[in-house]
Amino acid sequence: MNLWKRPGLSTRIFIILALMLAVSFGMGFTAIWYAGHYNTLLTELMASDMAALDAAREMETALANQKGYVTYYFLDGDRKWLDQLAIHRRSFENWLDRSNNYIHNEENRQMLSRIRQKYETYIRGKDQVIELYSIGDREGGERIHRDVRKEFFELSELCKKFKDLNEEVIKREVADSQTRTRQI
């Protein structure tokens, strides 16, 4: 038959339109699939990054809540202040451990490691101050307490930087998301 050897004009137009329609549908389905896939990926990353940011904020708060209890203990000798300090220490350590679960870049991992090291130094110093106050060596405790306060403020600054790093990661991902959305 002549149809298979050399198609007529109407057949060629129909084939071209069918191919254009297939390409259009293919592009549409591909764009929808890509957008859905990208949205899922972005949602998972944002959930992880938001959890990391929340953990960083909670860590900062738990550290701030530790401030002052040793001074209160120094003033009135009541061990309830040390009990409160222990509660906030556990809270900080829990948030520090949780933060480790949400880290997926080397810069945050290094910052978290520095925070952990600084916190251990801070706790050792604070425990030494408490020990000196407990045995009645107020002058020795006060001397070390001043140094421990400096450690506290350095640690607090590291926690703030860690929080800022997490905020920056979220900002970069939002900007990247906007760029990819425009490309789609």
Spell out the blueprint of helices and strands.
Layout: H1 2-5, H2 9-64, H3 69-76, H4 80-102, H5 106-134, H6 138-183
Helix pairs in contact: 2-4, 2-6, 3-4, 5-6
Annotation keywords:
single chain; about 180 residues; mainly alpha; 6 helices
Number of strands: 0
Number of helices: 6
- Percent of residues in β-strands: under 5%
Mean pLDDT: 86
Task: Characterise the protein shown here.
The protein is mainly α and 184 residues long. 90% of the residues lie in helices and 0% in strands. It is built from six helices and no strands. The protein has helices at residues 2-5, 9-64, 69-76, 80-102, 106-134, 138-183. Helix 2 packs antiparallel against helix 4. It starts with a helix and ends with a helix.
In short:
The chain is 90% helix and 0% strand. By secondary structure, the chain is an all-alpha fold. The two termini are 45 Å apart.
